[in-house]
Amino acid sequence: xxxxxxxxxxxxxxxxxxxxxxxxxxxxEGTLNTTGATVALAPDTAGLSGLYAGQQxxxxxxxxxxxxxxxxxSKQQIFFSIWSNNSGAxxxxxxxxxxxxxxxYTIYTAGSGHPGVPVQDIIQANIKEYSGFxxxxxxxxxxxxxxxTVVAAPATLARDDSNSIITANVKNNVGSGTPVRGxxxxxxxxxxxxxxxxxxxxxDGNGNAVITxxxxxxxxxxxxxxxxxxxxxxxxxxxxxxxTDAKLITYP
Length: 252
Fold this sequence. Notes:
Elements (H helix, E strand, L loop, with lengths): L1 H22 L13 E7 L1 H5 L6 E10 L11 E8 L5 E2 L3 E3 L5 E7 L9 E9 L2 E9 L7 E8 L9 E10 L11 E7 L3 E2 L4 E3 L5 E7 L14 E10 L2 E10 L2
Antiparallel strand pairs: 1-2, 2-6, 3-5, 3-7, 4-6, 7-8, 9-10, 10-14, 11-13, 11-15, 12-14, 15-16
């Protein structure tokens, strides 16, 4: 009888240890707990000041639990949608996986609907019953001097610390769209990873400015989760107007 009771106590203790180690703190793996969660959705500076048709901004969704103190929730899938689309806008990604800081990204491109007048689009980020919203104004004016387009090769990295060649092409919209030479392009990164120093490049005779992006590493030993993203943005200023284009880099 004593032997059976001892075995039962040992089994209960082992089960308890397994349960504790399996649950963790509910943050590393992004477990939504009973206290609930908060989703905050925020546009970058360009989105806050209003965008013209075709202009982009980066939208950052941040997921935190509601415990005290609150903590970021990683490795959770956030869904993006345009809840009210008055400009005919588009999103580069309809979902993203939160990184170690609880952030997931998409790129908003303002549409050309209802030209000549300002309109507002409402974007939603949600997971289960938790949602966050952002309002972006598409202005009536659309400067058209130049066009900048970003290409990443590859856009999906094989591993955390691998490289992608980022090419920004600048064209003149006057006439036949000829390449613009000698323009300084500034490259910035949202999320993890980095671009080669000094973060700028000058367009060549084909209008191309080239730089190298190196992916950021995630939480060791697991690294970045499949579906996590960073954003590389290229920008130029011509005639007092700033033109940007951005590209999502996906892991792995």
